[in-house]
Amino acid sequence: MSILMAARNSASRPGSKIAKVGAGLRAAAAQVPPGDKVGGALFAGVATALLVAGCASGSSAASSSAGTGTSAAGASTSGAASSGSATEITTASASGSTFLTDGSGRAVYLWVKDTGDASQCSGACASAWPPVAASGSVTAGGSAVASDLGTITRSDGSKQVTYDGHPLYYFAGDSGAGTAAGQGSDSFGAKWWLVAPSGSDVTASVTSFTAGSSSGGSAPSPSPSQSSSKSSAGGGWS
């Protein structure tokens, strides 16, 4: 019984490692009388069990540490990929009209109340009509004109995409790609319209469309000089 108690105490100590297990076993071995075959066999069994448990614990800790390192590296890689993404403005067609969407097929709108290339949409307005954020470079697709793309810097330092001088917005009420529930809305005191590749407003009745369904060809991506010439320090959203 004293052999079992010594071995058990060694294994249950906080932070016990294989070295500590070995020390406990040596102490237990000293209590086995010479020639005691029963005690010796019992000691051998306990020693084997403790050594197996110690090795398994060490292996699990090492595996856990390696797994944590891998996860951290993966998160870092993902973050780097996101920071280098681009915002695409392309086109779709419905009801005889062609209009702008983002690269995933979400409708984008202009607001008649905006003046120049400065946004007048803030607070609750910006919650209902989120600005189209410029993530990385801004590129054109479909019938969109690359030289008409630009950005403005909003008061919080974020960038908003503009087209032909119009700040662009999403509508929070759209369920996703291919929907234009915001078309013709007059919320916050002025009309919201889809945007034609010419930069004018589209007043046709459009509620849904097929993402990417545009009759126009691809437009070239903007050059750095074109993008910078369209940039402005204006913006009234906070």
**Quick check: average pLDDT?**
72
The value of Rg in angstroms is: 34 Å
Major β-sheet annotation: 3 strands, mixed
Order of helices and strands: HHHEEEHEEEEEEH
Order of strands in the sheet with the most strands? 2-1-4
Domain unit count: 2
Short description:
This protein has 238 residues and is an alpha+beta fold. It is 34% helix and 16% strand. The strands form 3 sheets. It has a 3-stranded mixed sheet with strand order 2-1-4, with no helix packed on it.
Describe it.
By secondary structure, the chain is α+β, with helices and mostly antiparallel strands. It has two domains: 81 residues; 143 residues, no CATH class. It has a three-stranded mixed β-sheet with strand order 2-1-4, with no helix packed on it.
Topology of this structure?
Blueprint lengths: L1 H11 L5 H12 L7 H47 L3 E8 L2 E6 L6 E3 L12 H5 L9 E3 L8 E5 L5 E5 L2 E2 L24 E4 L5 E2 L21 H6 L9
Primary descriptors:
alpha+beta, elongated, disordered C terminus
